Description:
Helix content: 25-40%
Structural class: alpha/beta
Number of domains: 2
Mean pLDDT: 89
Radius of gyration: 19 Å
Largest sheet: 8 strands, mixed
CATH architecture of the largest domain: Alpha-Beta Complex
Amino acid sequence: MHSVHLAVLMTSHNRRARTLSALSALEGQQGLPAHATLGVHLVDAGSTDGTPEAVRLFHPSVEVMSVGADASRNQAMRIASRNSRSGGGGGGSHSGRPGGPSHRWTHQLWLDDGVELHPDALARLMAAADVVGAGAVVVGAVRGADGATVYSGRRGRSLTLVEPGGERPEPCDTYDGRVVLLSRAAYDLVGDLDKVFRHRMGDYDHGFRARRAGVPAFVAPWPVGVCAEGPDVPGSREPGIGVREALRRVTSVTELPPRQWWVYCLRHTWPWAPLLMVSPYARTAARAAVGRWRA
């Protein structure tokens, strides 16, 4: 029977309890075939709360690399991917050595450390991958604490969340990167998250590049996990701040830094790129000005 070797890519930063919970849920996966193996590659970005030490203590099979606190989420994911390739990263028993045995992985799984997987999540993702074929990307939808979908595939110009449901995987145009399964064939065509994007936009850019490369993406028919915290409200939308502060926040590295936003617009929104480039900054300034006036 064909072997499945899964390389799980994770990052962490000062969320010790949540990271440990995510790893425990990963280790408790049920329903995977006997020939499936697993290797976890975690890159910790300068945690000061003991996250790396706790992971090594409670999950000794996880390969942990510590990098500086200035490493962005996308950069850390690229490092995790490199680690999975340099050591083979195929995976193995959770009681084995960190990183798993040195054989070639067949799939990569992006897993956010804030997501607690359902016990059968990996089995369901692999089942969906079997349905859509070896050259595709499978996205796992994630529910929030209230049961609403907070992360999933995205569709259309407005990037509407794709709800899981039905009996077959739902096609999507791009995806949030919380739970994403990439086959080796898909990875070979698309590669890693682009280094030009540090925090936001990198997931969406990857999905659109996949589509351009002829790699289809689908949302698995069933939610695969829960995330206690949904997407953060951008700081630039805080009520009462002035126009200058709102613009400072919206152009910061955690929101829409102009160079990265321009690259994204140029790649994926032409010929509307010039208009879309300035629109979020103009809306932010207008929102802040109206808010101050009303206050």
